Amino acid sequence: MLKELIAKIQPLNKTAMAAAQERQNMLTKPAGSLGRLEELSIQIAGITGQAIPEIKDKVIITMAGDHGVVAEGVSAFPQEVTPQMVLNFLYEGAAINALAKHVGARITIVDMGVAAEMEAHPLLVNKKIAKGTANITKGAAMTPEQAEKAILAGVEVVEAEIAKGLDIVGTGDMGIGNTTPSAAIAAALTGSAPAKLAGRGTGVDDAGLQRKIDAIERALEINKPDPKDGLDVLAKVGGFEIAGLAGVILGAAAHRKPVMVDGFISTAAAMIAVAIAPAVRPYLISAHRSQESGHQQMIEWLGLNPLVDLDFRLGEGTGAALGISLAEAACKVLAEMATFAEAGVSDKE
Amino acid sequence: MLKELIAKIQPLNKTAMAAAQERQNMLTKPAGSLGRLEELSIQIAGITGQAIPEIKDKVIITMAGDHGVVAEGVSAFPQEVTPQMVLNFLYEGAAINALAKHVGARITIVDMGVAAEMEAHPLLVNKKIAKGTANITKGAAMTPEQAEKAILAGVEVVEAEIAKGLDIVGTGDMGIGNTTPSAAIAAALTGSAPAKLAGRGTGVDDAGLQRKIDAIERALEINKPDPKDGLDVLAKVGGFEIAGLAGVILGAAAHRKPVMVDGFISTAAAMIAVAIAPAVRPYLISAHRSQESGHQQMIEWLGLNPLVDLDFRLGEGTGAALGISLAEAACKVLAEMATFAEAGVSDKE
Known about the structure:
CATH superfamily of the largest domain in chain A: Nicotinate-nucleotide-dimethylbenzimidazole phosphoribosyltransferase (CobT), large domain
Largest sheet of chain A: 6 strands, parallel
CATH topology of the largest domain in chain A: Rossmann fold
CATH class of the largest domain in chain A: Alpha Beta
Oligomer: homodimer
Helix content of chain A: 40-55%
């Protein structure tokens, strides 16, 4: 099933991109003067196959999961915060609620592997694979079967959203300790040292950061993830929400939908998606540069250039929300502006 | 009258800023994890004096003017484009129309000194000082009386908008050739060489750029603007739209309203405002880093740090529109998020 999905991911539509580029040059502004917004409109034209794409239905998918590696003292917050924050999302008290509402996006909250019983809630999608991953310093985070199941659950979630109407999807995460598996994924795929990829997450002190680096080093040593096999890296040192987000990304690309990638954890999920299916890369837009050290290397590995740098280090999809608004702005500029001819404005001499 | 206005500009409200900072630390996210948005909310609390400020009425004031220095061949577009683009604004075909609508801001278009008769239009505010400035390579752009009159016209425009309801104001400009006086203002105030401040504007070639640098050098030599006297710099090498925008900035600060400063030309206006009244500085928010070379030095002189860098070089208030949306997002995060206590979320261990 995963193979079939991957085979569906097509290159961008060059004809639509050329038409969008041509229109940008005819609009009443010096050619190229809206910089990144012009590029973004052309990329989205290529993704959707529409010369003048429209972004109306905006969705942020925020996936939650817990991590056995928290036993190693890698996080500044206790694990109980994961289910507490899921409830906070459902009752609209979190940053992602304020920012998604601000940009007119709807949010879907998914339990991919929270280490607690979550009461049923009409807004909570239950795709729980297990109550948290195993401790990656002692063995694999999950079985290969769980990894594939989690990815396919992510595909199902995004396909359900596409059925409701989706013009762009933003990724978001919640999971105490999840900067550790994300940095481990980055270390496995880039070959860079854990010390260069691990950061302070939600705010660990120097000793906590050292525990985190040690944990990643031990996880890589005991698991020996194969950098040529994205599914292997995911199963050995990943997380359920990361797997689900990789599925969201793959599913969105298969349906020609642009993906607004949030920060550190979402970027790790994007790396897994690209490792599994390199054709997914042009469907990705990096929303923002995370303050979490190591993000830059991940972005470079993906060949992306974040839209903004606002010193965010929160996750949840908060950066993606702002990026979605920029993507919508980019498409509105392309669609709504008058051309030189229409407005009777003289072009460059 | 200008002196009275300047005397009204007060320091930021420290009590409101401390309350906003305290609330940010209680909200359900790691302290500081929304980076620049948190800082922005605290600045706006200090500006408005409200511990939880609200941004509802958003206004972009786009001022147009022409420049005698275009006779020196400093622009890639002909001067007739200034009135043509003013009409394009009024008929909603320009980039600023699309972007202002996207962020829910209203636009006010002001003729400060377009070198053409503009037909009356219900959306066009007529504050024309003269039909374009004089050629700054031959003498002063305007008289000191015109400079003061233009600033006060800007104050009137923003006060009229405040009367209608205004929680934040963005600055915007239109004026063929206006990167030349803007770079001249920057050179006069920073003492830096014109060659380091002049850029390609709407897209001049190498020969055009050299003519521009020469024109600025001659303008500074013949006019000898006094860097300690903002009004003198404005009158000698400025422009009517730049003067009007300086008035908008001064008027907004006097009424404790945040000012979202657009790119190169608006930043030159902000420099004039700060040179005239240094107390205005903390009311300024730099929306974006312009692609126009020289902007960085102006930003540094002002001690500002642009919110985003999207390679814009258009003006009109396009960057300010996006910045206004970020300011609104910042205030919504502060106002709408639940605290750890309210949401029953465990704080850092």
